[in-house]
Amino acid sequence: MSFPARVHDVLGVGFGPANLALAIALEEKYPSLDIRFLEARPTPDWQPGMLLDGSDIQNHPSRDLVTLRNPRSRYSFINYLYEQGRLLKHFNLPIEFPLRKEYAGYIRWAASFFSHQVDCGRYAVGIDVVENAGERVWEVSTGSGRRYLSRSVVMAPGRTPYVPTPYDAAAAESNRAFHLTKYLPRLKELTADEPPKAVAVIGGSQSAVELALDLHRQFPGTRVMTYPRSYSLRLKDTSPFSEEGYFPEFTEY
Ligand SMILES: Cc1cc2nc3c(=O)[nH]c(=O)nc-3n(C[C@H](O)[C@H](O)[C@H](O)COP(=O)(O)OP(=O)(O)OC[C@H]3O[C@@H](n4cnc5c(N)ncnc54)[C@H](O)[C@@H]3O)c2cc1C
Question: Which of 111, 131, 152, 224 has the lowest CB atom count within 10 Å?
């Protein structure tokens, strides 16, 4: 079997916010490393299926890709607004948290500086350890059969969409049952000609509520039902204790 000769220092699987933050950190701290990221999507996008009108992000915008580690970095959310010429207007908005669409724009903007390190449309399917020129290295293979060698691999594929039984069978058979990660594009396809008569939202946490409200807003005549597992929709934890997840001590713990 022949292997590609190039051995990267770091190979990242996925190029969402987690590995994008890593790309920034490596550029700022170890600029001479040979780095490559594999991203399954055609372009690096943040939650494109759920950029609902009016939806916001749920934490302080300066807990961004970089500020907690390096407040002087050029890749901060504040600098993004500044370079877009919207800093003052943004501060003047009567909202506590930025809109999700704005934050997605920030992620796209930051990712654009690293396009030379990212191979898009590459879905990693396998990982192994191989011998290459006397060195034991990781070998990551993609769905299209390409192989990458690297001294270290950082997995950041995000969460796997979960559609529970019996809806998984419906989702496999029909494009009318789908996970929220496909919400906006699939809804557009299905409602191109007329609004839906009825929609069921399965689940009881934040995304389920967002979907029910969005459907109601977009299609006021449609019957929208939510089916939470428990006896009610779940209230988000808004206590400051949950925010301690951002403290380094918590990460250590
Ligand atoms: C609708 C929604 C709203 C959210 N809002 C917030 C919020 O306001 N604040 C917050 O802190 N968190 C929020 N989250 C949580 C979210 O998980 C994080 O914001 C963030 O997206 C996590 O980044 P990530 O890089 O770990 O994962 P992701 O953003 O999921 O990125 C993972 C990337 O890896 C790629 N990938 C997956 N598998 C492979 C593979 N095998 N090969 C190659 N590429 C692969 C995917 O295509 C994707 O681009 C939200 C989540 C959702 C779904």
Answer: 131
